[in-house]
Amino acid sequence: MKKASELRGRSIDELQQQLHELLKEQFALRMQKGSGQLGRPSQFKTVRRSIARIKTLMAEKKAGQTAGSGA
Question: Exposure check for the chain: N or C terminus, fewer CB within 10 A?
Answer without folding.
Answer: C
